[in-house]
Every structure is written in C-alpha cells, then in structure tokens.
Amino acid sequence: MEISESTKVVFYVSRIFGLAPYVVKRTPIGQIVDYKRSVFLIVYSVGLVFCLAGLTYKGIFFDVTSKKPIRMKTATSKVVTILDVSVVVSACICGTLSGIGGLHFVRELNRRLTEADEILSLYVKESTRSRRQRRKGILMLGLVCFIITGALSLDIWVWYRIADKIKKENSNSSANVLGYFPFYCLYYILMMFHVLFAQAALGIGNRFRHLNVALYEMFPEFGRTPRIEISSINLDSDKNDPIDVDLRKCVANVAHGFDRKRTLSSRKIIEDLAVIHASLSYCIVTFGIALLAVLGSCLLHLVATSYFLMVELVGDKDAVFAWIQALWLFIHIFRFLLTIEPCHITNVESNRTITIINSLRRTCKDVEVIESINMFWQQLIASNFSFTACGLCTIDRRIITSYCGAIATYLVILIQFKEADDNSGKTPH
C-alpha cells in the first residue's frame, strides 16, 4: 500500500478495517520518514477479522441445522453458499495477514515512490499531482462505501422478507438472517482491500504517465514548433490583425501542465527517468499475492452469484430476489473491474515508454544522449512491466475473456449438479 500525504485518508480508513496496522513516524515539519507496526493495531486487526470469521461460520452452521434453512435448501446450494462465504473470509484474512507481514514491502514500495516523486518534481508540479491523487482516492472510497452499503441494506431486507414467508414452518427464521450479519461486515474489509490496491496501482500508473510526458518533452519537434499566425475577423474593415500564438507554449502549459527546466542536460534527464522506471517496475511485482487473492474471490463470487440468479429465474421466480442477485452480480463485476482497470492503465503507461524511447532513438542526433537512450532501451526490453498474479497470468483487459469462459464452464457444471439434486428428490424411495 502507498502511504503518503495524498493517500492518508484511505490509509487511516483502512486501519479501521484492520488492513494497515502501522503507525507513521514524522519529522517535526510533518514529513513522513518511516512506518512501524503497532502491537495494539495488530491485535485489533487479528481479533477483528477472526472474530467476524468465527461468527460467520457460526451463523452458517445455525442456518444449516435449522428446521427450514433460509439459504441452503439443496446440497448444491449448500456447497455454493459455503464456498461463497469461505472466499470472502479467506480474502479478508489474506488482506489482514498481508498488512501484518508486509512491512518490509510497504517500506520498500514507499521508498521507491518517494524517490520517483522527488525526481518527477523537477518536471511536474507536485501540488497539482498530490491534489488530484487525493481527490481520486476520496472519490473512489466514497463510491465503494455507497455501493456496498446500499447493496447490503437491500440484501438484508430481501432475506428478512423471505424469512417472514416461512415463519409458520420456522418460527426462528429471523435469527437465521441475523446470523449472517458478521458476513456482511466482512464485505467492508474485502472492499477496502480492493480500494487499497486500486489506489496504489493508480498511483504507480500516474507516475508512469508523468514519466512519459517528461520523455515526450525530449523530442526535438517540441523545441521547433513554429509560430502560427491567426487572423482575427473584423466586420468593419477589410484589414486583418495577425495574432501570434506560440503553439509549443500552449502544449506545455495547457496540455501537460509542465514547468520545464533547462538547467538539466538531456543525458541526465534520460538517466534519471530510467532509474524511476526501474523503481516503479519493482513496485508492480510486490502485489502478486494480493492480486491472486482478489482475482480468485472475484471469479468464485461471479460463478456463485450467476448460479443463484439463474436458479431464481427458472425456479421460484421471485422478482425482488432476482433483482437483488442481479445487483450483487453487478457489484462483483464492479469489484473485478476495480482490480483490472488500474492494472491495465498502469501496464499501458509503462509499455508506452518503449514506444517513446524507440522514437527518441530514431530522432535524437546527440551522440552522448543516444548512448543513454540505448541503455534505457536495453533496460526496457530485458524487463517485464506488467501486473501479474504471482506470475500465473498477466492482469489486463484480456483476462476478461478468460473469466467469461471460466464462469460459463462452472455454471454448466453447477446446473448439472442441481438437476441431479432435483431428480433425486423426485425419485420415490
């Protein structure tokens, strides 16, 4: 996770959910210099997630052993529900343990990000970047909290509605719904895990983007942009008044918000940006386990929710319950995209550097600069700059098609199991 002034809101909220058991050490002027584990926060994080996990399984056991179960009416629904709950529990535990045991990676990640920010501050206005990143983090956090709170509220209302229908057969049906409340609380931890990863990935992608803008400034064409004369229209006279516009200045100030400093040599700039690219590429590698846990939970939730939606559409045909399942399907798709899109954006920006360096190799005429560019080129070719789930697969938009195929396959298998359950129930003993 990234811990900085621009991400401190998300960091402190994640501490409430037990995902960041760290205290921040600052200088007298307020600058962050180090991060340490807090024994109190570690105990709080472990106690929170394991208490919620234990209460969740207690609620499942109460529902299974009741006279009229609320959620687990068939053998297939029992397997799917327990798998659904177990995925959330395991992902939350993984997030908590990653926070406790990942102090070394957090320190190294933030050290490299700070180093990159110090060099990029020579080219990009620091205040503008920080404000923009802070706004994005708060907006993403608010949107996720709003969506998950609304979905959980509607889901609880629907299950209480179903419990009222079977109250004659099971007078304690409301307690079955109440037993799933710890499970709903775990969803907040899971979504906060997504937000932490998404913000860190977008922060790395934002630095890659500013690095690419700095490289664009190295093109000779930026220094030889012609001045353009635009004639104003005068309705009272045939005389045209020329207006000089410096196109290069407009591109630099409006499009990029750049503050170019010619005191640094081109060779020095290339070498510094190569160091930044290598550091940011290391940051990408540190998210392997988190990505594996998040993507695994997304896949299993998409399969389980799609199954329950199809069963409801062809079974009881309760319109309200079907809409709630459709809403949960949308939320799991949103979770999936919240993971995929930041990875894809960062991968695109990091790979765009190769195209820019290749263009610089063709256009640059300075012998000393060409040597630095060629070294940067070799570094780019020899390294991999993409998010991966522990090296198993590259995380970008192409994985969406793989997920669609996997979901369709597992749905067919689950439907076949359901038909077997239905047929066995109709068979006379």
Task: Write a brief caption for the model.
The chain is mainly alpha-helical.
Summary keywords:
mainly alpha, two-stranded antiparallel ribbon, 73% helix, elongated
Tell me the number of helical segments per DSSP (H or I, 4 or more residues long): 14
Total of domains: 1
Q: Mind describing the biggest β-sheet?
A: 2 strands, antiparallel
Mean pLDDT: 77
Would you identify the regions where 5 or more consecutive residues have pLDDT less than 50?
A: 220-235, 239-262
Order of strands side by side in the largest beta sheet? 1-2
Q: Tell me the Rg in angstroms.
A: 27 Å
The helix content, as a percent range, equals over 70%
Order of helices and strands: HEEHHHHHHHEEHHHHHH
Number of strands: 4
Distance between the termini: 58 Å
**Strand share of the residues?**
under 5%
Shape: elongated
Given helix and strand content, the structural type is mainly alpha
Explain what you see.
Gustatory receptor which mediates acceptance or avoidance behavior, depending on its substrates. The protein is mainly alpha-helical. The protein has one domain. Helices cover 73% and strands 5% of the residues. The protein has a two-stranded antiparallel sheet. A two-stranded antiparallel ribbon has the order 3-4. α4 packs parallel to α7, α5 packs antiparallel against α12 and α7 runs parallel beside α12.
